[in-house]
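Q: What would this chain look like folded?
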Amino acid sequence: MEHVTALILAGGRVEELGVLTQRRAKAAVPFAGTYRIIDFPLSNLARSGILRVGVLSQYNPASLMDHVGVGEAWGLHGKGRELAILPPYQADNSFGWYAGNADAVNQNRDFLEDSHTVMVLSGDHVYEMDYRPLLNDHIKSGAALTMVVKQFPKERLKGRFGVAKVSADNRITSYEEKPENPQGDYGSLTIYVFRRAKLEQYLDAAPGPGQLFHFGTDIIPRMVEKELVRAHVFDGTWMWARTLDEYYHDSMNMLRIWQALDECRVWTNVEESGTGGAGPCFFSATSQVYNSRISAGCTIHGRVLNSVLSPGVVVEEGAEVRDSILMQNVKVGAGTVLQKIMADKYVEFGPSCKVGSASECPPNRVMTESHRCGVTVIGKDTFIPGGSVIGGNCQIEPRSVFKKRIFPEHGSYLKGGEE
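A: My prediction, written as structure tokens:
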């Protein structure tokens, strides 16, 4: 669509995802075997004909930048198309580090030139949406801002979402940012469409350098009071994996709706994800696979049940992987049993390990509120020696190397080299 620029907010870590975001932004976290989370909003934009996109990055952006590149995988590179990474920078008219999402947009106003309409959206949500009806409704209504909202039970909204009250004619009549006692029942999905002139008017009220400046607290409530702000109600599948527990449950849910995922045309950078040069999966005569999503290039000699395997995973003979998520190039040694595991890229399990637990166990001792579902999480580039036993709700930091067998109890949090 002409004269529309989209800005993707992709700069955050999200501490509630623990070791998965210790070395990468949340938007770059792998999801559903072959994708990264940012693939979903990028694919939505490309399918909707929005061909000028800026990605606002800040925290640990290397993997995000490698994955997004110049946008070629989403058709966002070439004449009349542009994808730009917009990290914080220092110049005569800029203030360095982004101090909130509105500050990030404010520091990149030059990127909005020649745009009549500006979309601002989160880079860490999983959903399929055609933005064209949203943009057409926004332009037709003359609203200063149109927000995408979804109806949720109030208990789910509590302390987590921006909450709006919506009138019968879809006007937003009040807005609160993450209230503990929500008055409305529509949660903001952090998809905003602004008239550029109105957006810049409210960006002009930014506080001084380094002071926090957010849409949810500093711009949207004021616009609701003074301007026409409309709601666009979304009723499709939408996932926001804010915690390790939610990320695990959302990933397992993809096994139920994986066919719908494939049909919605999500694109990814196949070269960076490992699928570009990967051959077909290999299943030996000893392999058994049930209700699992197996990506290209996997080699299966053992047993895989209710699991998601990214490209290049190897499961050796006699090994069992159950209710687990294994990211790119994980190796599972012979005779090892994994139960309810999330292993980041390049993790290696030696032979005859027993990792995870199907039984009830105490929450992780460091992340007691966001890591309670029993899943054990192993950080990137970690080696687990043969014969190791690791309990449920454990986390092991990235690049940990253990020289001998380890026996962490339920709920442990281990740093590299702890024995």
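The chain has two domains: 4-247, 278-414.
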